[in-house]
Task: structure prediction
Amino acid sequence: MKENGIQDMEQFYELWLKSQKNEKSEDVASQSNKENGKQIHMPTDYAEVTVDFHCWMCGKNCNSEKQWQGHISSEKHKEKVFHTEDDQYCWQHRFPTGYFSICDRYMNGTCPEGNSCKFAHGNAELHEWEERRDALKMKLNKARKDHLIGPNDNDFGKYSFLFKDLN
Result:
C-alpha cells in the first residue's frame, strides 16, 4: 500500500471495486503490479483450501470434521433440530411424555397428578401427542438426511422417548 501511494483500507477497497467493474480485472491488476515491478501477495494466497461444514439451522461454520461432530452432537444444536418458533403457537396441550395412551383416572374424573401425569388427558391431547411425535420424526429424518445429526446418534435428551421404535 505504501509503495502504491494508498493511504488507507478504504482507498484500497475503492481501487479494488473499480478493478472489479472491468471485465479484464485480472489483466488490469496484473498490469499495474508489473508496472510497479512487484507482485502483491496476500496471506490468503497461501492458505490451504479447506472443506467447510455449515449448519444451516444454527448458522455455524466448522473448519474440521472434529469440530463439526462436536457441534452436531451438542444439546443446543439438537434442540434446534426439534424446535421451531411455530411450535409454541400450534400446540394446545402438554408436551408428550412418551406414554401414548389415555389416563384412566382422568377419564373417571379423579387424576390427582394433573399436569405431571404421564398419560394423555383425553382424546384431543392423545391425538396431538401422536401428531407431535410424527412431526418430530420428520424433523429427525430431515436432519439425518442433511447430515445434521450423526447416523448413529440416538441421544436426544427430552426427545429420546419419541424414537424408541426407531432403534
About this structure: Residues 85-166 form one domain.
